[in-house]
Amino acid sequence: MSNNSKETMGDKFTKAEVLIEALPYIRDFNGKIVVVKYGGSAMLDRHLEESMMKDVALLKLIGMKPVIVHGGGKEISKWVSLSGKEAKFVEGFRVTDGETMEIAEMVLNKVNKHLVAMIEGLGVKAAGISGKDGATITVDKKVVNGQDIGFVGQIKNVDTELIETLLVNDFIPVIAPIGLDDNYDTYNINADDAACAVAEALGAEKLAFMTDIEGVCRDPQDKSTLISALTLKEAYQMIEDGYIGGGMLPKLRNCIEAVENGVNRVHILDGRKEHCLLLEFFTKKGIGTAIIGENSSLYSHEKQTAKNKLN
User: How many angstroms separate the CA atoms of 257 and 197, rounded?
Assistant: First the structure.
């Protein structure tokens, strides 16, 4: 065995310091619900996928109550193409006719059970559902600028009974973004919208978005301008000043809406980085951007820091 493979005493102390730094966060988050919206490039990389599921399993094992809402857009597009159809979008929303809806449901259910199997393989109980189960997510037809885009749902209500039953019985709920309308027809739902609605209905402590960007940057071309935390007022100001555009704009608006509707904090994280959930939740500096309400409650370690500053 080479010397490089041997763990030094310094390495051991570093590990101990990491655990000690995480202690107050673990205490504050014990028993709290955290919703993770899982999607993006992390879903296409087996190594990143395993890393993410390990993070979620660890959250569960230390006493948190994680809920996963997953996407599958890129996989859906692949299967739509294989069927001989052309994927069409209107302002970012997939035009979903009956055949495309069948493909989307097939793919999302496949992804759902794959994630469940990964979590179960880590020794943690998980159960996969869609918004159709127990009429968990009900929708109206979504219309974009007066245009009918097919079986795309605008969320009307989230019934948390089934999700809460799974949580009480020690399962991690894994939710596919599919819903029912009043006629019990099946609709595809934007996964970001579904995650926000689920987090709001559950009164989640945290909502974390896995994305393909580092977080909110004052200059999108300069990663060093990453903003670790934004209040609602600051987030609104960044939008008004034109700093936010492209795909980040609807995502940040989703974050703002979730905080305004009772979620304590919303995190935008780079899902391409291993263990981004743990680094954001359990370290002082974090790794992404947290959106915090003006009246959101401070955690115990933050209260102590604020008290020390006053003294």
Answer: 10
Q: pLDDT, tens digit, for every residue of 153-174?
A: 999 999 999 999 999 999 999 9
DSSP 27-45: HHHTT-EEEEEE-GGGGG-
User: What are residue 261's phi and psi, to 5 degrees?
Assistant: -105, 25
b/e per residue 169-189 (b: at least 16 CB within 10 A): eebbbbbbbbbbbeeeebbbb
pLDDT at residue 183, as a whole number = 96
Q: Render pLDDT for 236-257 as a digit per residue (tens, 0 to 9).
A: 888 888 878 777 788 888 889 9
Mean pLDDT of 22-32: 85
Pairing of strands 93-94, 89-90: antiparallel
Residue from 155, 174, 213, 200 nearest 71 by CA: 174
Nearest by Cα to 114 from 161, 174, 33, 203 = 174
Q: Specify the residue for token string 């979730």.
A: 258
Residue 137: strand pairing partners: 158
What is the rounded distance in angstroms from the CA atom of residue 178 to the CA atom of residue 110? Answer: 13
